[in-house]
C-alpha cells in the first residue's frame, strides 16, 4: 500500500509539472504568428519647387518567417517586384514615386524553404498632391544666410499656412549634420526649451521626422527649419495613410 501511495504521489507531481510546462509554452507562443499587420504611409515633400514622393511600409515579424517579399501594383495594374527579392527586416521605403499615381502593395512572409507562411496587402495608397502644400515663413529671423543669434529658451514663430494640420520644427548641427531638436505642434510658435513634443505624431512618421530634445551647442552654426504638414485624414493622424510636407527656407542660428 505504501508503494502504491508513493507511486500515485509521484504521478501527481509529474502531471502537475507537465501541465505547468504546457501552460508556459502556450503563454510564450505568439498570437499573431499567421497575421501580417502591414501599414503603408505616403510622404510628399515639396522643396524648392520640386516634389519628392515616397511610401514607407512597416509590418510585424511572423513566427517561422525568414524573410519577406514585396510586390507593387501602380494605378490598378499587375503586381510587379520592387527589385529586392528578400527583405529580412520589418520595414521598407519605396522612393521616387509619382504623386499622381495610386499604389497597392502585396507582402509575403517566407520561411527558410521559400514557403509562404503568411500574406497580406494594403489598400490603394494615394500620395497628397504638392499643389496643396505651402511652406511656412519663419518670423523675426533672417533667412538670407545671415547668422541669427538666439538663446536656448528662444521662441520660434512662423506664418500659418493654408490647410496645414501640423508643424514640425527642427534644428540641425551644421558641423555634425546631427538633428539636435525636433518637435511637432499645431500652434504657430514653439519654445526651444520644451522637454516633450506638444503633439504626438504617428509612429511611422516619426521614423522620418524624429522627436529630439537636445540643446544647441555653443559657437556652432545650426540650421533651423519649420515644416508645414497636411494629412489626408486630419481628424485622426493615426488613421492617415498619406501626408504632404513643405519646409521653410533654412535659417542659420547660433547661441
Q: What structural keywords apply?
A:
4-stranded antiparallel β-sheet, 2 helices, 10-stranded mixed β-sheet, elongated, Immunoglobulin-like, 2 domains, disordered N terminus, 255 residues, mainly beta
Mean pLDDT equals: 85
Provide the number of structural domains: 2
Strand segment count: 16
- Element order, helices and strands? HEEEEEEEEEEEEHEEEE
CATH homology group of the largest domain: Immunoglobulins
Largest sheet, strands/sense/barrel: 10 strands, mixed
Which CATH-level-2 architecture of the largest domain? Sandwich
Share of β-strand residues: 35-45%
CATH topology of the largest domain: the name is Immunoglobulin-like
- Low-pLDDT residue intervals, each spanning 5 or more residues: 1-32
At the first level of CATH, the class of the largest domain is Mainly Beta
Number of DSSP helices? 2
Helix and strand composition category: mainly beta
Radius of gyration: 26 Å
Estimate the helix proportion, in percent. Answer: 10-25%
Q: What is the molecular shape?
A: elongated
End-to-end gap: 89 Å
Topology:
Elements: H1 2-28, E1 39-47, E2 50-58, E3 67-74, E4 80-81, E5 91-94, E6 103-110, E7 116-121, E8 147-149, E9 155-157, E10 166-173, E11 179-185, E12 189-191, H2 203-206, E13 212-213, E14 222-231, E15 242-247, E16 251-254
Parallel strand pairs: 1-15, 8-16
Antiparallel strand pairs: 1-2, 2-5, 3-4, 3-6, 6-7, 9-12, 10-11, 10-14, 11-13, 14-15, 14-16
Amino acid at each position: 500500500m505504501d508503494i502504491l501511495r508513493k507511486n500515485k504521489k509521484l504521478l501527481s507531481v509529474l502531471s502537475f509539472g507537465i501541465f505547468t510546462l504546457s501552460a508556459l509554452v502556450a503563454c510564450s507562443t505568439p498570437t499573431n504568428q499567421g497575421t501580417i499587420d502591414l501599414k503603408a504611409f505616403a510622404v510628399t515633400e515639396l522643396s524648392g519647387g520640386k516634389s519628392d514622393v515616397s511610401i514607407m511600409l512597416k509590418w510585424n515579424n511572423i513566427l517561422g518567417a525568414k524573410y519577406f517579399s514585396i510586390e507593387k501594383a501602380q494605378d490598378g495594374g499587375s503586381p510587379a517586384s520592387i527589385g529586392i527579392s528578400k527583405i529580412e527586416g520589418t520595414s521598407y521605403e519605396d522612393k521616387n514615386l509619382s504623386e499622381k499615381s495610386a499604389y497597392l502593395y502585396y507582402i509575403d512572409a517566407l520561411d527558410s524553404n521559400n514557403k509562404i507562411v503568411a500574406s497580406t496587402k494594403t489598400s490603394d495608397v494615394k500620395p497628397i498632391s504638392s499643389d496643396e502644400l505651402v511652406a511656412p515663413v519663419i518670423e523675426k529671423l533672417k533667412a538670407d544666410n545671415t547668422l541669427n543669434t538666439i538663446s536656448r529658451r528662444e521662441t520660434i514663430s512662423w506664418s500659418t499656412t493654408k490647410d496645414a494640420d501640423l508643424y514640425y520644427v527642427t534644428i540641425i548641427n551644421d558641423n555634425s549634420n546631427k538633428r539636435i531638436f525636433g518637435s511637432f505642434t499645431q500652434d504657430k510658435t514653439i519654445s526651444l526649451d520644451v522637454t516633450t513634443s506638444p503633439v504626438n505624431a504617428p509612429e511611422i512618421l516619426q521614423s522620418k521626422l524624429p522627436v529630439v530634445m537636445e540643446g544647441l551647442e555653443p559657437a556652432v552654426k545650426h540650421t533651423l527649419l519649420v515644416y508645414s504638414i497636411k494629412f489626408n485624414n486630419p481628424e485622426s493622424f493615426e488613421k492617415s495613410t498619406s501626408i504632404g510636407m513643405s519646409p521653410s527656407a533654412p535659417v542659420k542660428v547660433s547661441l
